[in-house]
Every structure is written in C-alpha cells, then in structure tokens.
Predict the structure.
Amino acid sequence: MDTERTEIGALGEFGLISELTRNLPSRQKSTILGVGDDAAVISAPEKGLHTVVSKDLLCEGVHFDLMYAPLKHLGYKAIVVNISDICAMNAKPTQVLVGLALSNRFSVEAAKELYSGMQLACERYGVDLIGGDTTSSRAGLMLSVTALGVVQEQNMTLRNGAKSGDLLVASGELGGAYMGLQVLEREKHVFKEAPGAQPDLTGFEALLERQLKPEARVDVIEELAKLELVPSAMIDISDGLASEALHIAAQSGCGVRVYEDKIPMSEQMYETARAFNLDPTLCTLSGGEDYELLFTVPQDRFEDIRNHPMFSIVGHMTEDPNERKLITRNGMETELKAQGWDGLKDPS
Amino acid sequence: MDTERTEIGALGEFGLISELTRNLPSRQKSTILGVGDDAAVISAPEKGLHTVVSKDLLCEGVHFDLMYAPLKHLGYKAIVVNISDICAMNAKPTQVLVGLALSNRFSVEAAKELYSGMQLACERYGVDLIGGDTTSSRAGLMLSVTALGVVQEQNMTLRNGAKSGDLLVASGELGGAYMGLQVLEREKHVFKEAPGAQPDLTGFEALLERQLKPEARVDVIEELAKLELVPSAMIDISDGLASEALHIAAQSGCGVRVYEDKIPMSEQMYETARAFNLDPTLCTLSGGEDYELLFTVPQDRFEDIRNHPMFSIVGHMTEDPNERKLITRNGMETELKAQGWDGLKDPS
C-alpha cells in the first residue's frame, strides 16, 4: 500500500511527534494549550460541571490484529472506545491524549496513517488532541488513549445507581462487532491456508464496520438530555450485554433479569451467526465491542423509552442481588453469565 | 523473591484490577470518583486555576530493564516522571491514571509489586490514583501514566516565554541518573559473563537511587511560589541539560549560552564518570533522566537565585536564535548539541 517508507529512527522522537502533530486544530474553548510542552492545559469548566477522565490501552495481538485492522481504522477505534467511556458517564467528550509505542517494523508513514484515523475521530466527535507521547517498543504496536469530558454535576451517571424495578435499556443493536470479527477471522484463516486468496467480505460490510470502525453514542447522550432523562446507572457495552448488565447489578446491589426476545439484533447479525453455527443471543451477551450504551431508568419513564427508535428495553432490575437471570424465548430461566471477552486471557 | 506465584489468568482482568485497586485512599478534595466506573470524575478547580495533563509511556527494553529495575521502583518512577512534567508547568500534581500491559510471564504478585511502588509515589506526592486500564500484552511490560495537576492561570509556565538576557537556572545536580545507569549496565555485563556473580554496587547508592528511584521537584515549585518568582520558561530535565536548554531556546525564539563550570554535579557523579572514562560534563549535557527542573528568570531576580542552595545559574538566553553555545572551562566556545537519549532510537 505505502510506496514510501521512512524509518522512524530517521526522524527521532521529537521529529516524529512534530510530524504527527502538525496543524492540530483546536475545537474546544477549554483547550488552552495542546501538544508541544511538558503538559497540556485546559481551563476550568463552568461552575457546576465536573471533569471526567478515562484511559484505555489497545495492544497488538490482544485487542487488534494488524492482518485485518487497517491502521487508520485502528487509530479511529482507539479514540472512539475512550469517547464511549466518557459517554457512559453521561458526559460530553472534549479532549484526548494519545500514547503510541511502535516497534521498528513500523514506518513514519504507518504512524501517520494511525494518526490520520485518530484525527478523523477527533474531527467527527469535535474533540481536541492535546497531547501524548510517542516512543519505540520492543515488540508490536500499542496505543494508550486518555479521554477527558465534562458533565453537569447532577447529570453524572455512575454504574451504581440502579434501583429495583428500574428498566434496563440498550441503545442500538448488539452482537454485530463480534460477528464482524468472526468474518475477519474466517478470511484470515482462508488466507493462511491459501496465501494470495482474496478475502470474500461482500455482504458483511455493516458487520465489518461495527468491528473495525465502531462509533461512540454521543447521539444517545444528546437524546437523553433532550428527553431530560438522567439514567440511574449507565455503562458502555464493550464486553457484551451480560457482563455489563452484571456490572450494573453488582455495583448497584440489585438483581437483574434480561429477556432474550427483547435483545436488539440486526437481521444481518442474526443470519450470519446462524450461517456460522453460532447462537445469535450468545453473540450479543458475550460478544463485546459494540460500544452501545446500557442504562437503567425508573419505570415512570417507560413511555419515553418504549417506542423510541434508539432504545430497547431488554430487562429490569430486581430486589434480590443474587438474581441474575436470562429469560429465554421459550420462557425458561437460566443464569445470566459473563463470558465476555477478557483482555487478560492468554492471547495465544 | 516472590514465594507465591498466581497466574494473572486465574483472576482475569476485572479480578486483577479489583485486587490492585483495593483501598485506594483519596487525598485530593477534587477527586469525586476514582477507580471502578467507566471514567474517573474530578470537580472543577477554583476560579482562576487551569488543569494540566501529561502522559508518558514506559516500555520494557526501551525505558527500563527488568534485570536491574525492581518492579516497585519502576512503579514509583513511572508516577514520578509524570509528576515531573506537571511540575515543569509550575503546577501542583493532583491525580494520576495508570495503564498497565503485562505479558503472561508476569504474575499477580509482580503486578501488585508494581502497584505498591505507584501507590508509594502517590502517597509521597499526595496525589490520587483515580483510574486506568490493565490488560495483557504479547511481549513485555508497558506502563502508561496520565497525570493531572492544577496551576494558577498567571503562574502557568510554558517553554516559550524566555527572553534574551534571562538567566538559565537548574535545580539540584545533574548527570547522576545517567551514571547510575552506567554502573548498573556494567554489573549486568559482569553478571552475563559470570552468572551467579554478586553485583558490586557499594558506594554507588546515591547514583543508583537517582536512576532507579528519582524524585520530582515539587519542592522547587513550592520554593518558587514562596519567592513569588514565576519563571519565564520551564522544562524538566529528562533528556539531558543540552536538549532541554535547546528546547527552551527554540520555542522561545532565543539563543542560549551554557557555562561548563556552572553546571551542578555531585562529587560522586564526577569521580565515577572519571573512573568510567566518561566526560562528566557530557553526562550532564546528554545523560538525561535527572528530572530536575530547568527554567529561565529575568536578570532582576538574580539576587533570589544566586546563593539559593536549590539553584544553579548555568547560563543565559541571548538575542540571536542561532546562538547555541557551550562555554568550556578553559573559555572555548563550542556548539551546544542535543545528543540526548532518544526513546525512538533502535533499542537493540
């Protein structure tokens, strides 16, 4: 793809950083000073606003595979997953800082490709890239992003505020990112058996996009503000619906019941899962990386939610903290289990 | 050292994080919410204060060698180098977030050892560990720290405010961290030739401490406040005096003259350098990792600085932005060159 290859050593750390961070625009009034000093500077938010800060690491071979994740998409995704954490606090993202560790198999052009994806995400979400660090690594690529945002004190939404009786609500459709990953893994396997084979990805575009270029639901946060609806608890769905529902339940001291027939899934996700001999429900429960939002609201907000095109009521919270149930399509009750993708499982 | 070894996979990501972040104290009033949700929350600082944010990566084999860096020291150092960046803005450190990527050769006990060093540094500097991420890596250990601090708007000190005629001032003594590294490298070499040989580090304790357990100069920031002295420019010395002096000069559009006989060095550093056949001056100019502060002040503050035990006037800024001079002990003028340690040089 790249016709040019400039070794990173040819520029050095300062050269590379200045190459990557040239002409970074400033979109947020609160950004006083961006890249180029010992630290970035942001002004205090208006009275009544809190600052929220999240941090995520993405490691090659654990969180992504460069065999199918284009660098630009990867940069985009690294920003998005952090912005998603900010959204999960019911906050508005404002700034990001980016740490990049690269082994010497990466060229300056590759680093620029990564950065272009990060800048695209910053543009899309109106956030400023205000700082970071770039260094070499002994092996592989690693991205570390810190995101900042602001939230009205009274709108701040933690994971621990759900009450018995609250509705459990998910945005969007689930399981797509996981199915996208399955498609990519299959084609990687085909390619390994027969190098030179062109991957056959036609018809799976939407699933692939969910996996490779997810979006953070800032629109959901804006919609909640319009509805004047502050969730009692919220989390973003990075490890699958089951894991996140259990987090809310555990941290809120509630039980939870999830109804299989209420879980939102796209027809394409459903059909592809069947074709791959996978249980579509399991893909939504344990698949992860959808970056949708899962939140709880008091029952008296039922009317705001039930026919809203953004939202699906997938269950409700209960009194008994030991209750963790999935109610299947045929009415059976089974244990809701978190078999979510775990960043600390042995990656090999 | 460790008698127990618990595999990280046995706890999983959430288990490890909760093991590592149990009982984290909160020391800063501004910390509203620490570890355990999608993001940490901090309250807006008082009117007139800005927030500063810095981020640094430390990669195994590039920034540290576990053959001689004990994990606890490494955790301590990872926090300190970020706090040093906050100091370099003339700000007060308040919170840190920690990202940790570990390969499966590390045990839970090793991760706890690292964390204990980070917590010790947090205690020493009165900052709160409010969040982060823990994940596996394919190879080695990588630490990513984000530090936050606050600064009075009018005290904020960037790199670009130095003026011609300003005095160039360094805190503490330079070159010690680099000499400590040379001692460790020598003993590593001896050990490789004759495994089982006990390292001979007696008499080098102070240098080793500079390398393995550096401190950030928050006391210098406090002293500047007492003196009601806001430097015109400031940077922390992580890459050697030459590199940092040139950064201030370049970003301020000034020239700079550094006087060899004014560079502060300890007798031990000097003697050890000579014994290693190294030029002590070069160790201070290009050695790096001292984490002292380098700043500029107008000449009319000369009296505040000249006999102050914390400070050494090492040179001054000049009109011509092309002037970058080292004036040697014998009065010769040579080019001041940044041969600083570069995180992007091939680590092998």
In short: Chain A has ten helices and 13 strands. The first helix of chain A runs from residue 8 to 20.
